[in-house]
């Protein structure tokens, strides 16, 4: 009977057989672990920026310095329609559709960070657009303007909290606010957090105003908690 040379070598030493078997089997396991780690680490971050109605553009702040690590891709969705340009249902449908086209609600390991007026727009979109059931999408609202929604409404109304909670599902959802925001009082922000307590976790940072600083180190730490 023909016996391969390698097999003959193994059969003479039980110790050698165990050692060789361990080495041979370790290689495919190592490759699989490396692939799993590289797949797990890749994260896409989409920023829905605040819009400054005075300068008619996106103000300079931490958007371009949010470099988490080499495995994270950050994109800023500049040029989106401003939701408060017109208080009409027709205009509301325009900016909602534009926002819907650019956001990745169905892409796994996506973090959507919405700031200021962008946070207001994202909350409204979450009333009617659900995050995919089989994906993990983290949501971070920074300095939402008010507890009440009034773009496209004749009279301000509360956000449809039950719809938002259902559409967010089990995905992680944070609301970040400051105690000295000139546009949204701490009381308003805390009331919004209370409304969304079933799906969102509040994060209060002191003395950050409207979060227009060039660096946002706490946000980097928060991103790491999402995945």
Number of helices: 7
Order of strands across the biggest sheet? 2-1-3-4-7-8
Order of helices and strands: HHEEHEHEEEHEHEH
Examine the secondary-structure arrangement and name the CATH architecture of the largest domain.
Answer: 3-Layer(aba) Sandwich
What structural category arises from helix and sheet content?
A: alpha/beta
Number of domains: 2
Poorly predicted ranges: 2-40
| Count of distinct strands | 8
CATH top level of the largest domain is Alpha Beta
State the separation between the terminal residues, measured CA to CA.
56 Å
Explain what the structure shows.
The chain has 7 helices and 8 strands. With 227 residues, it is of the alpha/beta class. The chain has 2 domains: 5-35, no CATH class; 42-226, 3-Layer(aba) Sandwich (Rossmann fold). The strands form 2 sheets. Strands 2-1-3-4-7-8 form a 6-stranded parallel sheet, covered by helices on one side. Helix 3 packs across helix 4 (117-126). The longest helix has 28 residues, at 14-41. The protein is globular. The model is unreliable at 2-40 (pLDDT under 50). GO terms for molecular function: hydrolase activity. Pfam families: Ser_hydrolase (PF06821).
Distinctive features:
227 residues; alpha/beta; Rossmann fold; six-stranded parallel β-sheet; two-stranded antiparallel ribbon; 7 helices; disordered N terminus
In short:
The protein is of the alpha/beta class and 227 residues long. Helix content is 38%, strand content 17%. The strands form two sheets. A six-stranded parallel beta sheet has the order 2-1-3-4-7-8, covered by helices on one side. Strands 5-6 form a two-stranded antiparallel ribbon.
């Amino acid at each position: 009977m023909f016996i391969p040379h390698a097999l003959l070598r193994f059969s003479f030493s039980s110790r050698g057989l165990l050692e060789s078997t361990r080495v041979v089997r370790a290689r495919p396991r190592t490759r699989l672990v490396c692939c799993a780690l590289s797949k797990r680490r890749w994260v896409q971050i989409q920023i829905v920026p605040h819009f400054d109605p005075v300068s008619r553009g996106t103000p300079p702040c931490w958007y371009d310095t949010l470099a988490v690590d080499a495995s994270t891709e950050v994109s800023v969705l500049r040029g989106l329609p401003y939701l408060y340009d017109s208080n009409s249902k027709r205009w509301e449908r325009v900016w909602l559709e534009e926002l819907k086209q650019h956001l990745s609600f169905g892409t796994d390991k996506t973090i959507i960070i919405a700031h200021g007026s962008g946070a207001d727009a994202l909350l409204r979109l979450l009333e009617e657009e659900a995050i995919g059931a089989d994906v993990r999408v983290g949501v971070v609202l920074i300095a939402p303007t008010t507890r009440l929604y009034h773009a496209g409404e004749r009279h301000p109304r509360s956000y449809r909290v039950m719809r938002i909670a259902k559409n967010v599902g089990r995905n992680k959802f944070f609301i970040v606010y400051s105690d000295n925001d000139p546009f949204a009082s701490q009381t308003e922000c805390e009331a919004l957090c209370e409304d969304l307590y079933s799906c969102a976790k509040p994060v209060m940072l002191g003395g950050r105003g409207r979060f227009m600083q060039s660096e946002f180190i706490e946000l980097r730490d928060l991103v790491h908690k999402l995945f």
